[in-house]
Amino acid sequence: MNKVILMGRLTRDPEVRYTQTNNTLVASFSLAVNRRFVRQGEERQADFINIVAWSKLGEFCSKYFKKGQQVGIIGRIQTRTWDDDQGTKHYVTEVVAEEAYFADSKRDGDAAANSFENTFGNTAPGSMGGDFEVSSSDDLPF
Question: What is the number of other CB atoms lying within 10 angstroms of the CB of residue 116?
């Protein structure tokens, strides 16, 4: 299974271009995703992850996403290689977006933007949410 869920801030506005073969829109941008843990005495580090969004999703991202905005992306990892004009081989790993969401709170971002919490709920990663309750160990299926 190849599934990626990211939440981070855009490092630049999405860049739009069109394919030469069938004129399909493709938007590309980079997300700064904070690492989960911080070593004592060091600043928090971030990974800069390249994102590509095609067609209608790319149009959405190019229209509504701006530098510095926090967004959520669901997609898949893809690797590509190509040779440039000098014959040098290039490798790139990127996330192909399948879903994109606003993640800023409404008071921080655009009032019309849906927040990440409205899309995914406000449960912590790995939690079951408020609808799941275990009253005793007899209720567990294992």
Answer: 18
